[in-house]
Amino acid sequence: MTDYIPVLHGGTDLRADELDTIECAKVIAAALEKLGYRSEVIALDIDFTVIEKIAMAKPLAVFNLVESIRGDGRLGHLACALLEHFNLTYTGAGETAFFQSNSKRLSKSLLRAANLPTPREWTDTASAGQKVIIKSVNEHASFGMDQQSIVDGFEAEDEIARREKEFGGRFFAEAYIPGREFNISIVETKTGPMVLPIAEMRFDGLPEGIYPIVDYAAKWDEESDVYHHTRRGFGLEAREPDLASELARICVDCWYAADLGGYARIDFRVDPAGRIYILEYNANPCLAPDAGFAAALREAGISYEDGIRMIVDAALMTGMT
């Protein structure tokens, strides 16, 4: 059997988050080479014969980083569908789970059906004075989210329309949850999902009037205040073991409810009363060395290359069943 594992991505050079995907693909290919595999980076566009050509090379697996195609998150699941069409083993969640995760409204419906806590979706009956946050339905990396995304409920309909016109795609609104934010990475092992050390996003020193949210600027704009005042910290398990245990429990419940695989990240808010809410789960989170998943691996004492190995091993394990 071949030792070839190409890295497939759908990134473009049009946005910072997509450029990051392209650079991440190169880093993963280099890590795979260090692990003894042959690898290369392959870009996916609307021409899906790319995947047919990959199939002809009979790879051991495909490292799938496709979240969107031509900058459109609604198309991301097509990579999974085509890889499955050609009976190719690939990393991460399967096509159905990926499709569900790529729609925040669909994934939140799934969570609610599983009795998992998520912010209440806004309707046109939301009362004035209730804060809501406007989000893209299909895009990740906080695309289309900024400080003006948080509005009173009575403004939501107009703000949704404005953002759909500015950014394209579909937007929706849900209750804004003030409080603490946690990003939790998970990797699949032979014995099931392993919850990595819990990261808390800290917003210490934000200018007055700025909402503590991980918006697009906080992630990608190195010249913005929020970028420099948004920091990741670990150690919750030692400081607040009960909260850490409950977050980890919900992570595992979410993993199974959403039929995730390989690896994932789940984002939470905990309000001032201690109530936990799942903001979203990401079936294909960023694996860049400076991103949250890699940071959680380091905190767990796992090297970046070994983390990539674990993701590949999970795919191979699934491919053999």
Structure description:
- The chain has 321 residues and is α+β, with helices and mostly antiparallel strands.
- The chain folds into three domains: 7-90; 104-117 and 178-198 and 234-319, D-amino Acid Aminotransferase, Chain A, domain 1; 131-175, no CATH class.
- Helices cover 37% and strands 18% of the residues.
- A hairpin with a 2-residue loop joins strand 7 (180-189) and strand 8 (192-195).
- Helix 1 (16-34) packs across helix 12 (304-319) and helix 3 packs antiparallel against helix 4.
- It is globular.
- 44% of the residues are buried.
Topology of this protein?
Blueprint: E1 7-9, H1 16-34, E2 41-43, H2 49-56, E3 63-64, H3 77-85, H4 95-101, H5 104-113, E4 131-136, E5 150-152, H6 156-167, E6 171-175, E7 180-189, E8 192-195, E9 199-202, H7 216-220, H8 225-228, E10 231-233, H9 236-239, H10 241-257, E11 263-270, E12 276-282, H11 292-299, H12 304-319
Parallel strand pairs: 1-2, 1-3
Antiparallel strand pairs: 4-5, 4-6, 7-8, 7-9, 7-11, 9-10, 11-12
